[in-house]
Amino acid sequence: MQTKNILVTGACGQLGNEMQLQAAQNRQYRWFFTDVCSVSDGTAVVPLDITDRTAVDSFVEGNAIDVIVNCAAYTAVDRAEADEERALLLNATAPGYLAEAIERRGGQLIQISTDYVFDGTAHTPYVEDAATCPASAYGRTKLAGEKAVLAANPSAMIIRTAWLYSTFGNNFVKTMLRLGREKDQLGVIFDQIGTPTYARDLAAAIMTAISQGIVPGIYHFTDEGVTSWYDFTLAIHRLAGITTCHVRPLHTSEYPTPAARPHYSVLDKTKIKQTYGIEIPHWEKSLYECIKSL
């Protein structure tokens, strides 16, 4: 049986790095890791500009790619408000190029999307076919990316996730660890509700989908459970043994940002659990694993 050739874009990011760890455990596939620029840390990441349609076509065809996992994105949520054109290029146009290229080969794309496609006014977990209504430029561009991908590659898989963190790169967990050690007190928003997601858990779910066979459609994936940014911070500090920083709850109105955040963005994961038979860990268990690794 011929092995699959798998391309992972955005390989230097949080999820891309976790996919590199998955690749090391799944050598039955032939892996290709790319990012906007090559890195010199010993990993086999090669440069690929996914906003260059010709470069994308050439890479996908030249390496006989069967599956693309697109971990690349414009994720600076607040900056996107003033830079929506660039965000649209990276979050919608580029995924469209990837989808077109893999469609010509009869392959499939896994596109990572976000809870920001919803406005956060619900009070029960969002299912995959709930009405989308992004309240930010970032959300609009990611939703446009979903549509571009499915239009070009109907057999694609979209995975919406939320509150992503890992041992790699910059993220909320690392920031709260640093601030908790530097400051005597800290204010954190308590009226935005969602679920943290350890990028390692998401990478494992992606690997399961590839191994079992990608079932096209939109899916939701976060870790299990529900929390606020305030309670998340308390858990981070408790698990890290930080006791000298007093964390106080803030209303969203006390911490204005250029981009609107969903007040409630809990995602229903029934579909992905039933389709692939996966068990998802509780966010606090995964947070413990991450902090232990750090």
Structural write-up:
The structure is a single chain. By secondary structure, the chain is an alpha/beta fold. The chain has a single domain (5-170, 197-223, 265-280), classed as 3-Layer(aba) Sandwich (Rossmann fold). The chain contains nine helices and 13 strands. It has helices at residues 14-25, 53-62, 84-104, 137-152, 172-182, 199-212, 229-240, 270-276, 283-293, and strands at residues 5-9, 30-35, 45-47, 67-70, 108-114, 157-161, 164-165, 185-189, 193-194, 197-198, 217-220, 227-228, 246-250. The strands form four sheets. It has a seven-stranded parallel β-sheet, with helices on both faces. β5 (108-114), α4 and β6 (157-161) form a beta-alpha-beta unit. α3 runs parallel beside α4. 46% of the residues are buried. The model has no long low-confidence stretch (mean pLDDT 96).
